[in-house]
Amino acid sequence: MTWPVLAAVLGLFIGSFLNVCIYRIPRKESVVWPSSHCPGCGTQIRPWDNIPILSYLFLLGRCRNCSERISPRYPLVEALSALLALGMLYRFGLTIHFVIYYIWACVLLIITFIDIDYQIIPDGLSIGGAVLGLAIVYWLPLSYRDSFLGLALGAGLLTALIYGYYFLTGKQGMGGGDVKLLGMIGVFIGWQGVLFTIFMGSLIGTAFGLPWAFVQRKTMQAAIPFGPFLALGGLLYVLWGEQIVSWYFGFLA
Ligand SMILES: [Zn+2]
Rounded to an integer, what distance in angstroms lies between the CA atom of residue 113 and that of residue 73? Predict the structure, then answer.
């Protein structure tokens, strides 16, 4: 078996675990015990009904016991996890960087879906991730200085934006959770990555947020959380940052 196949399959099974984290972390439940249950009827899910993506297809998206609909988000998260594993493998090869940035991507995936569901970003993931990142900075592909500046700029710039926005409009656009998240992202991608992440996150967030807010008849701040777009911006920087930046400046010139 080749490495990409192995990475994709591992990514699928880790994705299955990420679904458990997304469901249980905001409920303050253990992510390791007990094993998965149907949220509808409480029946324990058998191992052969818990195979990533395949079980969802075989069961036609319903619980075997009570026929309660299973959210298509479960196979989606599994597929995203596999794609991120493949992406990081192509980006870094079989290195310690691949392991670190795939785990980082998994944390961003968990944060994304918790933020979509609850409009919160658990401190354990953002602050915890930042502390862990600084602790292992020796194994990251950036200097301690760039990493620390990433933390300071990420948290500082977003705090300034929030206060500036509040000063101008009297409304709160983003929350403290976004500040801690961008600080954590900055630890792993440095201050250059933070600038990229704010730019891309705002661009994509506006492109999706404006039509969505229009459909929902809400303001953009009420309609969508910003965390998922920061996570997406950070991931894009790691995977294709150099290509996107050189394309952009080539486009300007
Ligand atoms: Zn059930």
Answer: 9
Among 185, 106, 97, 99, smallest CA distance to 141 is for: 97
**What average pLDDT is seen over the chain?**
91
Residue 49 CA to ligand 1 centre (angstroms) = 12
Q: What pLDDT is recorded for position 220? A: 63
- Give the Å distance between the CA of 123 and the centre of ligand 1: 32
Helix H or strand E encompassing 217: none
pLDDT in tens, 52-62: 999 999 999 99
The CA distance from 149 to 153, in Å, is 6
- Distance from residue 120's CA to the centre of ligand 1 (Å): 28
Q: How far is the CA of 74 from the centre of ligand 1 (A)?
A: 15
Virtual torsion, Cα 82, 83, 86, 90, nearest 10 deg: -170
In the numeric block, which tokens belong to residue 50?
């818990």
| Burial call 56-67: b when 16+ CB within 10 Å, e when fewer | beeeeeebeeee
53: number of Cβ within 10 Å: 16
Q: Which of 94, 78, 71, 95 is nearest to 12 (CA)?
A: 78
CA proximity to 116, closest of 246, 35, 223: 223
Nearest to 232 by CA among 89, 99, 79, 111: 111
Q: How far is the CA of 69 from the centre of ligand 1 (A)?
A: 8
Residue 197 vs residues 24, 39, 55, 193: alpha-carbon distances, Å: 28, 36, 36, 6
Q: Are 147 and 157 in contact (CB under 8 A)?
A: no
Q: How far is the CA of 50 from the centre of ligand 1 (A)?
A: 13
Distance (angstroms) between ligand 1 centre and the Cα of 38 equals: 5
